[in-house]
Give the backbone structure.
Amino acid sequence: AQSVAQPEDQVNVAEGNPLTVKCTYSVSGNPYLFWYVQYPNRGLQFLLKYITGDNLVKGSYGFEAEFNKSQTSFHLKKPSALVSDSALYFCAVSYGGATNKLIFGTGTLLAVQP
Amino acid sequence: AAGVIQSPRHLIKEKRETATLKCYPIPRHDTVYWYQQGPGQDPQFLISFYEKMQSDKGSIPDRFSAQQFSDYHSELNMSSLELGDSALYFCASSFYTDTQYFGPGTRLTVL
């Protein structure tokens, strides 16, 4: 069965330090991988995606993610965290095509301390 | 840029009542998805439509139905509401199977 795991419920980082939010997936075939961010009482905002090609994907607000097929991981990274990055981050996977539904991880709360 | 519009933003209903949630996709997007996010939970896929036809179905209760209209907007109809239906309901739209963009959500509270 398809699944996405975000092993950390919460990640704490000081402002200005690099951040990593982890995601691993367990799916067959060639999945599409996504990161979305959710601010309190707001919808999900698209950050970036990996479909094919370069394993390092750059997205919005300075975020990037690296697709690692051998480790089945798609970790989200940012070189220098901002307090305004504090939010709930969801990793998601889909297969595209007719079954394009997103399967989400359980989310990781990122807390950036000033 | 235009975003996905959902209405209403908040809805309070009594048990056993009926609710209708509306979703207006980004212009030129032909695919609509509905997700349900319970408190402290990740979003769960309910149903999707492509070109006004149902394209996929997830864990949507039989009490719920949905459709996509000729102008591509979609409505999620929920009947015999239960306390457990209280959640945030998101609509997302895409151009075919491209990236899904989410609306702000409708927060449904069932009393």
